[in-house]
């Protein structure tokens, strides 16, 4: 039986409220000064997006692992893990200051109550939370750049607010890890052989 371990970046995500996005969407976030709720104005990222709890209630979708143990997170890994490396070439995780948002956060438990436990409209059990207003860039406490080809490769940038240099950091990240982008299976085989 293969044992599953959480990647190194998870210890950073676990301590923070966060939102994940792609490069183009991050540019729009910086342009508007906030992560905006998606009531249908943005394109669907996934087939289930149109009928999601966040979309129907015009909320910002967030991840909040703070109340879950690592074991509980592992039990639900099939529901949330892929969202952290599904953008190409990278997924950007925006870490958020919980104290600035706490009063307005709709917790997973509250979403379960709202749906009477039906999870309809759809949301990720235990780890997805929501915010009913734009999340200002002033609430950003850092960023993770996670490789979209091999999710164990990441870079943590502990910078507050909108950080325009992140796009240069992404370019540097992709150049640094160019080998994996060119031949991900070969790189993965080398990693597994260690």
Short note summarizing the structure:
With 194 residues, the protein is α+β, with helices and mostly antiparallel strands. It is built from ten helices and eight strands. The protein has one domain: Heat-Labile Enterotoxin, Chain A.
Structural class: alpha+beta
Total beta-strand segments: 8
Question: Unreliable runs, pLDDT <50, ≥5 residues?
Answer: none
Shape: globular
| Head-to-tail CA distance between termini | 19 Å
Tell me, rounded to a whole number, the average pLDDT: 87
Number of domains: 1
H/E element order: HEHEHEHHEHHEEEEHHH
What's the total helix number?
A: 10
CATH architecture: Alpha-Beta Complex
β-sheet strand percentage? 15-25%
Work out the helicity level.
25-40%
Task: Tell me what the structure shows.
The chain has helices at residues 10-14, 23-32, 53-56, 70-75, 77-80, 98-101, 108-114, 166-176, 178-182, 184-193, and strands at residues 17-21, 34-35, 60-64, 90-96, 128-131, 135-136, 140-147, 154-157. Strands 5-3-1-4-7-8 form a six-stranded antiparallel beta sheet. Strands 2-6 form a two-stranded antiparallel sheet. By secondary structure, the chain is α+β, with helices and mostly antiparallel strands. It contains ten helices and eight strands. It has one domain: Heat-Labile Enterotoxin, Chain A, CATH 3.90.210. The mean pLDDT is 87.
């Amino acid at each position: 039986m293969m044992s599953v371990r959480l990647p190194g970046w998870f210890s950073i995500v676990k301590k923070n409220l966060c939102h994940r996005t792609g490069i183009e969407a991050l540019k729009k976030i910086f342009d508007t000064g906030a992560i905006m709720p998606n009531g249908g104005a943005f394109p669907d990222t996934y087939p289930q997006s149109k009928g999601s709890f966040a979309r129907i209630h015009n909320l910002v979708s967030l991840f909040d692992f703070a109340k879950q143990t690592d074991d509980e997170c592992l039990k639900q890994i099939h529901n949330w893990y892929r969202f952290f490396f599904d953008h190409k070439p990278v997924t950007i995780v925006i870490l958020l200051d919980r104290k600035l948002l706490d009063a307005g956060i709709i917790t997973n438990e509250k979403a379960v109550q709202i749906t009477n436990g039906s999870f309809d409209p759809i949301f990720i059990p235990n780890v997805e939370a929501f915010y009913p207003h734009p999340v200002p860039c002033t609430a950003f406490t850092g960023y993770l750049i996670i490789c979209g080809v091999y999710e164990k490769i990441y870079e943590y940038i502990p910078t507050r607010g909108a950080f325009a240099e992140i796009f240069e950091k992404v370019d540097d990240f992709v150049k640094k890890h160019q080998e994996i982008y060119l031949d991900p299976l070969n790189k993965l085989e080398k990693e597994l052989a260690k």
